[in-house]
Input
Amino acid sequence: MPRIHQLKTDQLSFRPLSSKHKTAELRYNDRNYWPGDILILEEINSIPEIKTGAWLGMLITHTLTAAESYGALKSDFVLLSTHLLYRSLPETPIPLDLEFIVRSAQVLAQELQLYNIRDLVYT
Output
């Protein structure tokens, strides 16, 4: 079963992710992210920090840690490659359906043959 990470992200990062122009996310590595995990990114206005109601459901397809980056990343950061599964924008709000997103992520992970070393099973 994939883990779900529900996070906030500002509009400068959210909009390129929602339009698929951006397919990677640099994050503080406090959650031990793995391929096959799911990100739920909720858009916020930076000042004041208020949720806009927009969100993205994304599958983590690859992680790059500091140890693998030949010094390009600080030790407490990770670069996440992502695939957009579902989006809800303020103009067209859709309720967050975690079960649907998890099922979609599992199907895509199998198609991409993402192997989750943590569980030693396909997720």
In short: The domain at 4-122 is CATH 2.30.130.30 (Archaeosine Trna-guanine Transglycosylase; Chain: A, domain 4). Strands lie at 4-10, 24-28, 38-45, 50-65, 77-88, 115-116, 121-122. The chain has one domain: 4-122. The chain has two helices and seven strands.
